[in-house]
Write a structure and sequence with these properties.
Two copies of one chain form a homodimer. By secondary structure, chain A is an alpha/beta fold. The first copy, chain A, is 44% helix and 13% strand. Chain A is built from twelve helices and eleven strands. Chain A has a five-stranded parallel beta sheet with strand order 2-1-3-4-5, with helices on both faces. A four-stranded parallel beta sheet of chain A has the order 7-6-8-9, with helices on both faces. In chain A, strand 3, helix 7 and strand 4 form a beta-alpha-beta unit. The first copy, chain A, binds a DNA duplex through helix 2 and helix 4.
Amino acid sequence: MVSDGRRTPNIRDVAREAGVSYQTVSRVLNDSPAIRPATREQVLRVIDELGYRPNPAARALVTSRSGIIGVLSSQSALYGPTTSIQAIEVAARAAGYRLSVTSISTSDSESIRAGLDFLLGQSIEALVVLAPQVGVFDALSAMSIGVPFVTLEAPGLDPGRSISVDQTRGARLAVRHLVELGHTEIVHLAGPSDWLEAQARLEGYRSELAEAGLRPLAPVVGDWTAEFGYRAGCDLLAARDFTAVFCGNDQMALGFLHACRDAGVDVPRELSVVGFDDTPESAHFAPALTTVRQNFVEIGNRAIALLLAELGGESTLDSDPIAPELIVRASTGPARS
Amino acid sequence: MVSDGRRTPNIRDVAREAGVSYQTVSRVLNDSPAIRPATREQVLRVIDELGYRPNPAARALVTSRSGIIGVLSSQSALYGPTTSIQAIEVAARAAGYRLSVTSISTSDSESIRAGLDFLLGQSIEALVVLAPQVGVFDALSAMSIGVPFVTLEAPGLDPGRSISVDQTRGARLAVRHLVELGHTEIVHLAGPSDWLEAQARLEGYRSELAEAGLRPLAPVVGDWTAEFGYRAGCDLLAARDFTAVFCGNDQMALGFLHACRDAGVDVPRELSVVGFDDTPESAHFAPALTTVRQNFVEIGNRAIALLLAELGGESTLDSDPIAPELIVRASTGPARS
DNA sequence: ATTCATCTTCGAACCGGTTCGACTACTTTA
DNA sequence: TAAAGTAGTCGAACCGGTTCGAAGATGAAT
């Protein structure tokens, strides 16, 4: 890597060194066919020798393609979004795109707008929204995005623009499992009410119970954290008028299990607990958690596939929703009659 | 937002519409002082009216500042790195930078090089490396980076270029706690041996035991997962020749606790268990986990602060290492004599 | 009224690529 | 042997900003 003159080499430096015109170098870079093999060899050698890297800004300027896909994510270290983003990154990179991720800490429209502005100001070519609060989508439809976009884990909203596991179905699987075990009084520890996933799971909980002819109990609205699950559990177990709990995610289930231990309630003998997500840890909870598995990697992959199709001008394929899967472990058992 | 002609408006469109020259618009954008307030108002109004956004590629081209900070991360949804990256993103955004994150799935030099190439090809202005395997740093020093960079959670390597919690100290805190409880036979469930954090914790484990005049046992090398912790636990508990376990992270501790339940071993009565990281869930393990807290947000913030200082030409300040904190919970207790 | 300083605006060059029409030299065909 | 075709290369214009020296306007000083 030579650094004569203190300037990073540009395409003209390469051309001069290789004894060709700079357009020829450009041809080599974009592997145009009309280049004599010997010339290409020569140019490539000089490129390597000089440590030349094409300037992405210059390229973006003239092609008006930034190669950037924006990701708007809610600020959290939750397992699901994190896993999806990673899958997105891998898929995007494979397609020659890079990611620009920004996270919003609150879901008020001001901060959403700021996050979106930040991304749009980078001339992103497409957008993935991973912030599944209702407010986000209101803000989204208020601003004209101007690029293809897809929302993740926002079930029931804007079909065709949203990729998600069928949350309602997942919730129904969980509840049905409990019903089949003979439970009739099933509490739901829900996620934040402005999260679409939480809404869909609550909906699934209600409709499955209705179908079984059972009455839903008032949902306890939480914040996805184990800490909340614990405190809610302590409260609920004081007046124990239920035999099963369907938790909105695995973390809350963990907290709830903790509360059960504190209260001396035996799971699953006296109480059945179900989670949601199947985090890698849930198999090792005490007891191992029955939960609903979501394929977060698949979500990410499909998101990029859809965007790439749209960027390529293809019609957006409406694929089947991703099916969740019930994973039965030790935290659920038959209701005691 | 007007869209006449099907082209996004550029600075000249704004100038024409506002009745000024395009250089004046540029002045307004970079809030140069030499602009009459009335002119500024007028220009800003037109900008808003046209929905004009400056083209970052054009700007980057002429200023030769991309505004991008690259992040090279190892592919995982681990709590620590995820949290740090988020802190980095927030801090970078506040400073007017954006992030380009890429993750490498394996730590062989080929894939490291590819990841690094991918980032350097985006003319990043600075680099954060969050892939604390030894191989990464070998590859790093082999390639000339050409931009300021900082490595995270890579203790003991390249001081001044690395931000991390003092892992060795954290491990010593954990082990000292066990020693003070009277434990003499302490097993270490280590992280992968090519991870610098794992090495540092192992080192801390050994030196603290040495100082206490105790002999270290052969470490069990794992992969950070709960699943591994479980399997290792099952093996270890078969021939139970120890009274305490120091786990390299909370997930492995969780798996180990699971194994203890399976084996009918009472924690902390018969066995003490310590984790590392203090994930938000660890307070709700069964039993609540004694662990070592790391401030991942602080790590991210410091990383950006250091890079910004360097980008601004300031000398790199060598700050004190971040101190870890022992969080004592229910999983540790006195050794039975 | 003229000169000069100051404030504000303008013109032109440049950043580092891509692209398209034109040019050259060498084959092929009649 | 002249005309036509073709592979390979080149020149110039352009993308959308920033920057710097120069110019126009305005008002104060002489």
